[in-house]
Structures are given as structure tokens and as C-alpha cells.
């Protein structure tokens, strides 16, 4: 998510929101199925990373 090794929880939250806004499946609803699937998979990775890094 583009964080430094000594990130704060505020920075994590901001990075999560930024990346979620970029990849959220609703944003890609009018695009091809392949692109929708790719963005959905990326969103799942972002969610997993956030869950792992959140304290």
C-alpha cells in the first residue's frame, strides 16, 4: 500500500482508503468482466493486507 516500515495507524487507514477507492468493484461495474475480476481480486488483497497490518 506504499507505506514506510514505521507507518502509523493513521497512515495505514489513509492508504487503505486511497487504495480501496481506486479498486472498489462498484467503480468498475461498467467495465469488462475481466477488469472487474482483476479489481475485485486486488480489493481482496488490500483488505487482507489492512487486516494483517491493523493493530
Overview of the structural elements:
It is a single chain. The mean pLDDT is 95. The protein contains 2 helices and no strands. It has 55 residues and is mostly helical. The chain is elongated. Helix 1 runs antiparallel to helix 2 (33-53).
SSE topology sketch:
Blueprint: H1 9-23, H2 33-53
Which consecutive residue ranges, at least 5 long each, have pLDDT under 50?
none
- How many helical elements? 2
Beta strands, count = 0
- Kindly report the oligomeric state of this protein: single chain
Q: Helix coverage percent of residues? A: 55-70%
The value of Rg in angstroms is 12 Å
Structural class: mainly alpha
The 3D shape can be described as elongated
Task: Tell me what portion of residues adopts beta-strand conformation.
Answer: under 5%
Q: How widely separated are the two ends?
A: 16 Å
Average of per-residue pLDDT values: 95
Q: How would you characterize the largest beta sheet? A: none
Give helix and strand order, one letter per element, not per position.
Answer: HH
Quick structural gist:
This protein is mainly α.
List keywords for this structure.
mainly alpha, single chain, 55 residues
Amino acid at each position: 500500500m506504499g507505506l514506510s516500515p514505521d507507518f502509523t495507524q493513521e497512515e495505514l487507514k489513509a492508504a487503505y482508503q486511497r487504495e480501496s477507492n481506486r479498486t472498489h468493484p462498484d467503480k468498475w461495474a461498467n467495465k469488462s468482466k475481466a477488469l472487474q475480476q482483476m479489481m475485485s481480486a486486488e480489493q481482496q488483497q488490500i483488505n487482507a493486507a489492512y487486516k494483517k497490518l491493523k493493530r
